[in-house]
What we know:
Oligomer: single chain
Low-confidence stretches: none
Strand order of the largest sheet: 2-1-3
Helix content: 40-55%
Shape: globular
Structural class: alpha+beta
Strand content: 5-15%
Radius of gyration: 17 Å
Number of strands: 3
Amino acid sequence: MEYTPKTFIIPELDGISKKSVEDHLGLYAGYVKNLNLIHEIVENQNNPEYARREAFRRQGFEFGGMRNHEIYFASFEGGPQSLSPDSSLYKKITEWCGSFDTFMTIFKGLAMTRGVGWNMLGYDSVTDTLVQYWVDEQHMGHLPTVTPIIALDVWEHAYLLDHGTTGRGAYIDAFFKNLNWSVLEKRFADIA
């Protein structure tokens, strides 16, 4: 199996520069490249068994980096659009948190967690509920049966260029300002 980096049609973003997006897309392409290298190692029976096992161990990091970024970048395609109060995702969020504003406060609060990782909102098909969770690095913390709807990258590379070392909060605000909620609504509708 060989993976190919996806192409995203991302308009000019408010608070996230074109240069930052280009650099970030380059990092994403690196995850895809490294995942392909892992597959080359594990599929080659001539490689020592320990090398193949270690490559498998690394697979979760590279695969998570690839898929997390695909969810992230796709969320900007088509430009910013607000979430309609009539949408099923909005209704599910308010059922879960009581109000959309409460959800945003909780979500942004977790995104300020110290350290690198991803702040995620997913849907658990087993319990028919939304779940907010933190993914360390790219792979530690994904929850079985929970499909991501929002993937907010809070590694420094996502905001350092535009907002500096203390600008995580400004970057989180920019993320939500540029989010195309119709993409997220479709993502939710496809899994719920």
